[in-house]
Design goal:
GO molecular function: transferase activity
Helix content: 25-40%
Number of strands: 27
Mean pLDDT: 93
Low-confidence stretches: 1-6, 433-438
Distance between the termini: 68 Å
Structural class: alpha/beta
Keywords: Transferase
CATH topology of the largest domain: Glutaconate Coenzyme A-transferase
Protein name: Butyrate:acetyl-CoA coenzyme A-transferase
Largest sheet: 7 strands, parallel
Number of domains: 2
Strand order of the largest sheet: 4-3-2-1-5-7-10
Domain Acetyl-CoA hydrolase/transferase N-terminal: 14-172
Strand content: 15-25%
Radius of gyration: 22 Å
InterPro entries: AcetylCoA_hyd_C (IPR026888), AcetylCoA_hyd_C_sf (IPR038460), ActCoA_hydro (IPR046433), ActCoA_hydro_N (IPR003702), NagB/RpiA_transferase-like (IPR037171)
CATH class of the largest domain: Alpha Beta
CATH architecture of the largest domain: 3-Layer(aba) Sandwich
Number of helices: 15
Length: 438
């Protein structure tokens, strides 16, 4: 079938023959969204639902495909409300699954989360007739294992990547040609705060370390600051263009990894054409399922695992909120707790949370979180802002407060210090006023 912008109705007719009312539908998040299929689905949702309703799992969003008005037929549920999907949360039509990202494959396979239909974007087949999942593994293999129906769009711009799962024509119930290029993520140039944070973190990352990165401009700035390192490794959920740049410069070799030696491991490619080009038929990169990329024993077995993640805000004792900003759900529990715990157990590991000290003039180092605790203070390691690094490992509450005050924006420190007395009193602790005694 040749899918063009003019024949979404034809695709919708085929979808209607396969999708049943009440089905729960999954697809790859972010860059892995199969745009031809998803747009046909939402445009013709009434005909496809046949008078019933459909469930759609929502991950990280990078397209405008999903809109609040579609809740007239679609029940949105998911673990993330980032990017364009934030509008679903604001409209009150996104039902959040507050689960650790690493739990998703198990919840799918246990049928706790239903996956009746999976829409996937795949590469053209190789010589053996195998379609690569291209840009993503994550929780998609689990959904494929449980789905009644698998619908795929072939995109010639999707790289053929090595991984634990491929598809053949026999696995696919409907195959269409893509009418859209894959989503590309182009990062803006880092600002002064991001550059300062990157320099602080770079000072801690040794030659031979294995990197795990979050998503966004800040991780890309951090990667760019590591260009003078040797034999860095990769074991991450998401990766961007900066990883391709490190590999092409000979910095990322995976040569010193204690597992998967010589091979970089990732769950999803979230970058531009540059990243796709580097990943295409690259045997030194393998995409793996979340149950491997985030497995605690796997992570603990990687020496010098530098887990670098972001946050919305961190309180003075090290509790992290990565989900809610200004009363709106914007993030997800995600994989940060898994990676931070893994890095803490790794020999020479670095559990890092990085964030600018302020946002729109407000402090992101706070006395009390404005949202949920996404990462417990017992899992806090190094907290980094442009003002420095607070190493909270093994520190008392009072010692943590002092270190967190030191990395807060100077204009907010006095107010935070006043609030610290009340905070520590509520925790049954005593505030240590002198930095030298901490």
């Amino acid at each position: 079938m040749n899918a063009t912008t003019l024949d979404t109705a034809r695709i919708a007719t085929d979808l209607s023959a396969l999708i049943r009312p009440g089905d729960h539908i999954w697809w790859g998040q972010a860059t892995a969204e199969p745009l031809t299929l998803t747009r046909a689905l939402v445009e013709h949702r009434h005909a496809i639902a046949q008078g019933g309703r459909l469930g759609v799992f929502v991950g990280i969003g990078q397209s405008e495909t999903l809109q609040p008005a579609q809740a007239d037929v679609i029940d949105f549920f998911g673990y993330a409300a980032s990017g364009p999907h934030r509008q679903l949360a604001k409209a009150g039509v996104l039902d959040i699954v507050p689960s650790h990202y690493s739990h998703l494959p198990g919840l799918i396979r246990e049928r706790t989360l239903r996956a009746d239909v999976v829409l996937v974007q795949v590469s053209p087949p190789d010589e053996a007739g195998r379609y690569s999942l291209g840009l993503v593994h994550e929780y998609i293999p689990a959904a494929l294992d449980c789905a009644r129906v698998i619908i795929a769009e072939v995109n010639p711009e999707v790289p053929w990547t090595y991984g634990s799962r491929h598809l053949t024509a026999d696995d696919i119930d409907l195959l269409v040609d893509a009418a859209h290029a894959p989503i590309s993520l182009e990062r803006s140039a880092p600002g002064p705060a991001e550059q300062a944070i990157a320099r602080h973190i770079a000072g801690w990352v040794e030659d031979g370390a294995t990197l795990q990165m979050g998503i966004g401009n800040l991780p890309e700035a951090i990667v760019a600051a590591l260009g003078d390192r040797r034999d860095l490794g990769l074991h991450s959920g998401a990766i961007g263009d900066g990883i391709a740049a490190l590999a092409e410069a000979g910095v990322l070799t995976n040569a010193r990894k204690t597992i998967d030696t010589g091979i970089g491991i990732a769950g999803v490619l979230m970058g531009s054409e540059r990243l796709r080009r580097w990943a295409h038929r690259n045997p030194q990169l393998q995409l793996r399922e979340t149950s491997y990329t985030h497995h605690p024993e796997v992570l603990a077995s990687i020496d010098k695992l530098a887990a670098i993640n972001s946050a919305i805000e961190v309180d003075l004792t090290g509790q992290v909120n990565a989900e809610v900003a200004a009363g709106v759900y914007v993030g997800a529990v995600g994989g940060a707790p898994d990676f931070l715990r893994g890095a803490a157990r790794s020999r020479g590991g670095l559990p890092i949370v990085a964030l600018p000290a302020t946002a729109k003039g407000a402090s992101r180092i706070v006395a009390q979180l404005s949202g949920p605790v996404s990462t417990a203070r017992s899992d806090a390691g190094l907290i980094v802002t442009e003002h420095g690094v607070a190493d909270l490992r093994g520190k008392t509450l009072s010692q943590r407060v002092r270190r967190m005050l030191d990395i807060a924006a100077p204009e907010h420190r006095e107010d935070l210090e006043r609030q610290a007395h009340t905070l520590l009193h509520q925790c049954g602790a005593v505030f240590v006023a002198q930095a030298g005694t901490a």
